[in-house]
Design a protein that fits this description.
2 domains, 31% helix
Length: 303
């Protein structure tokens, strides 16, 4: 339960960053011995998985129905498909869930590493469509222990499955025993109601090391492809904001703050934050891109 809760809390924090206000975390459950972890997964669901490659063994698999993948991608700034909500998932949508999975699983590994007192490395996320969920055991293998945590993304049910080998569980139990002993030896001090739990603080600190893409956006405009290709050197393109208007700061595709652009004494660009929060939910970042370079639509400065 502690293992599943630590992983789920870390994943929930990252998901909420990508889709603010649209994520709900359910209960953690320990599956009965021999129970199939992927029972009830619908055909066509997308599974994002990572394996632990150093420190411990085991794997985490996050399973989303196609509609949840689309809602997560839209939360990251991608537009709705022109062919309607039933359209097949695009490569960009799959790339978006891969980006989210990479950070979710890294956060989960960091959280577990905090509890165990050692660094844990993970493999590159594997993203695939489960056309036949009954074959999941062949893909991800079996394990004597497993936890399952339910999530809702935009109202769509998803699941985090942690496959736990026996050796992992032994090391986890030993680490938890040591942690409990340290707390008991601390002059018998008890955490008062409302006081932040030390483990939660440690998890937050571990999440704080995750790298995010950050850029400032001066404004936007739309150009036909022919017009964009025909722009001569020195041409002026009008944006949708006045020169004195505040600048948006985006963090991983989510509008995070507003402020103004400054030039430091060293001649470097900088951003002075004046307001935190997404006051304008309609103004999202351009569609997810593997490159961090600004698009034509952004027509701004990437910082």
């Amino acid at each position: 339960m502690r293992l599943g809760a630590a992983s789920a809390e870390a994943v929930a924090q990252v998901l909420d960053m990508f889709a603010p206000g649209a994520v709900e975390r359910g209960e953690v459950s320990v599956l009965a011995e021999g129970a199939p972890p992927f029972a009830g997964v619908t055909a066509g669901s997308v599974a994002a998985s990572v394996s632990y490659v150093e420190g411990v063994t085991g794997a985490n698999v996050f399973v989303l129905p196609a509609v949840a993948v689309r809602k997560l991608a839209q939360g990251m700034g991608m537009p709705a498909p022109e062919d309607g909500p039933d359209a097949e998932l695009s490569e960009l949508e799959m790339s978006a869930v891969g980006e989210a999975a990479n950070q979710m699983m890294a956060a989960a590994a960091s959280a577990i590493g905090v509890v165990m007192g050692q660094e844990i490395e993970i493999s590159v996320p594997d993203i695939r469509v489960l056309s036949d969920p009954s074959s999941a055991a062949e893909i991800y293998g079996t394990s004597p222990y497993a936890t399952s945590t339910t999530f809702l993304i935009g109202g769509e049910s998803c699941r985090l499955i942690c496959l736990v080998p026996s050796a992992f569980l032994v090391r986890m139990a030993r680490a938890l025993d040591e942690l409990s002993a340290e707390r008991a030896a601390d002059e018998g001090a008890q955490l008062d109601e409302g006081q932040t739990d030390a483990r939660a603080m440690a998890i937050a600190e571990a999440l704080g090391e995750i790298k995010l893409r950050v850029w400032a956006e001066l404004g936007r405009t739309e150009l036909a492809l022919g017009s964009a290709l025909g722009l001569p050197v020195g041409s002026v393109v009008e944006l949708d904001r006045a020169a004195e208007a505040p600048v948006d700061l985006f963090v991983n595709g989510v509008r995070f703050a507003q402020g103004r652009v400054l030039v430091t004494d060293d001649g470097e660009w900088a951003f002075e934050c004046e307001a935190i929060g997404r006051q304008d939910p309609a103004r999202l970042s351009p569609p997810f891109q593997a490159s961090s370079q600004p698009s034509i639509e952004q027509e701004g400065a990437a910082i």
